[in-house]
Amino acid sequence: AVAGASAGTLALASLPTLAADPLAGMVGRYRQHYPGVVLDLAAPEDTSDLVAMVRDGRCEAGLTEAADLPDDLVSHGIGDQALLLILPPDPSARIGVSASLPGDPVASAATVAFADMLDIPFIVAPIGTSTRRLLDEGFAGAGAPPLVAVVTAQRDAILPLVLAGAGAALVPEPIAAVAGALGATVGRPHPAVVRSIALVHRTGPLSPAASRFVEMATLQTA
Q1: Poorest-confidence range of 71-80, 180-189, 192-201, 212-221?
Q2: Higher pLDDT, residue 13 or 5
Q3: pLDDT at 96 over 60
Q4: 202: helix, strand or coil
């Protein structure tokens, strides 16, 4: 064991859409090695909120999108995350996408152009969030903004809203897999939507618990 990393509390922050993947896997592996450390996971609204939490010491490290990060924080690349489309069950009559097949709904997902979804209502996160920016950029390439049906900061509400027929959404691949298993239609946006992920922390020494977390996270992706 690393001195000082066998007990205590480690405060981490993560964008909500990164909590299921990759943060959950990171925390699981860490807990297997250091079961005496309690992890306190914060859920900032967006990257700027996360950066503030790390800067002022409320959290020792944060998992966020690796875009436009400030120079005063140390950043470690963690990898890329694909975002997929989830649509209400069987919208095939409108956009020509078949409902997800039994088995792996992600593997069987058809490609859907943003230009073919200009009249599809979307459930979106608030402006300023990573997924909202990526969705807006995708539609900007098609020459029009998304047709917004619902704006929600409640990430847990997005999947139930899609399944209830309120609209489509752009979500991380693990969430799309769950959605497909529950009957939603899964599509791959064209152009593809991929974001790079980074683990950030302040310059200077970290606590032993945080230092070991950063080491394990970066070794896993090396």
Answers
A1: 212-221
A2: 13
A3: no
A4: strand
DSSP secondary structure letter of residue 182:
T
Q: Give Cβ neighbours of residue 165 (< 8 Å, ≥ 6 apart).
A: 88, 89
pLDDT greater than 80 at residue 2: no
61 residue type, one letter: A
Classify strands 110-113 and 8-14 as parallel, antiparallel or unpaired. Answer: unpaired
User: What six digits make up the tokens of 181?
Assistant: 């298993």
Structure tokens at 80: 């890329």
Q: Name every residue whose Cβ is closer than 8 Å to that of residue 169 and which is 6 or more positions away in sequence.
A: 85, 86, 122, 123, 124, 158, 159, 161, 162
The predicted structure's pLDDT at residue 97: 54
Alpha-carbon Rg for the chain, nearest whole angstrom, is 19
- Picking from 33, 46, 25, 42, the residue whose alpha carbon sits closest to that of residue 7 is 33
Q: How far apart are CA 1 and CA 187, in angstroms?
A: 45
Q: Tokens 């592996």 label which residue?
A: 29
Query: What is the C-alpha separation between 118 and 144, in angstroms, rounded?
Result: 7
Helix (H, G, I), strand (E, B) or coil at 181: helix
Which residues lie below 8 Å from residue 195, measured CB to CB, with a gap of 6+? 65, 66, 67, 80, 81, 83, 130, 134
Q: Residue 77 phi/psi, 5° resolution?
A: -65, 130
